[in-house]
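in:
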């Protein structure tokens, strides 16, 4: 595996009986890259992510994530990645600090390290005034920011974000992307799915899945030039229509 390529996928496929959910996809993702993984509902994005994070075994193909084979070293993959999604839930009946402490323990951090991380995270996000409030009392945008930060607690090489900004307002989405950029600038690879096409513009490169296949993969600028359109939404619509 190349030192700069933290995800390497070749002909990765997932079948459910006669149905092919992910069809021989091939791509690489480099260290510190913000990689957008786009597609309509049912295109195969979530199935592909489940294989890459080690919770679903591929039917065939090859994939290495954070230096580990997803077929044979799924547990090592899990230890070296972070994950959050729109559906990922912090524990509503725990406080902000209790949630951070709980997940730090799951990630195997020492008590001292958990306290250091919790203090730094609370300071960075400006949560001092609410750190002892129950998470259920916070707005969705705050929950998403905390969830992302919790996914980074153990300093993973890669963070998978599955529709992380669904349901939040545009200003909060922009603030969330500032957190993404900061993590990427520190060397963490960000693998993000989104159905907001304006967010595709924020990615270094994007792939677009249609019916289980990757139909386009390039920088947003190059894709817009290739399809002779002004925005990524038009690129997506052209591919979806075939």
């Amino acid at each position: 595996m190349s030192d700069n390529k933290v995800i390497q996928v070749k002909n990765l496929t997932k079948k459910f009986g006669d149905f092919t959910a992910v069809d021989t996809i091939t791509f690489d993702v480099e260290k510190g890259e913000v990689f957008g993984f786009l597609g309509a509902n049912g295109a195969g994005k979530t199935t592909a992510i489940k294989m890459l994070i080690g919770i679903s075994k591929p039917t065939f193909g090859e994939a290495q994530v954070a230096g580990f084979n997803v077929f044979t070293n799924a547990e090592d993959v899990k230890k070296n990645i972070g994950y959050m999604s729109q559906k990922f839930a912090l524990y509503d009946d725990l406080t902000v600090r209790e949630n951070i402490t709980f997940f730090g323990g799951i990630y195997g951090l020492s008590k001292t390290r958990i306290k250091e991380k919790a203090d730094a995270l609370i300071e960075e996000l400006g949560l001092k005034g609410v750190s002892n409030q129950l998470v259920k009392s916070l707005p969705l945008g705050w929950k998403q920011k905390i969830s992302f930060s919790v996914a980074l607690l153990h300093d993973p090489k890669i963070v998978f974000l599955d529709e992380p900004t669904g349901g939040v307002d545009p200003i909060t989405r922009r603030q969330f992307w500032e957190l993404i950029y900061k993590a990427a600038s520190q060397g963490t690879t960000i693998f993000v799915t989104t159905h907001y096409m304006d967010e595709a513009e924020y990615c270094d490169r994007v792939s677009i899945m249609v019916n289980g296949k990757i139909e386009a993969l390039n920088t947003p600028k190059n894709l817009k030039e290739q399809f002779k359109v002004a925005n990524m939404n038009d690129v997506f619509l052209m591919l979806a229509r075939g």
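note: The chain is about 35% helix and 25% strand.
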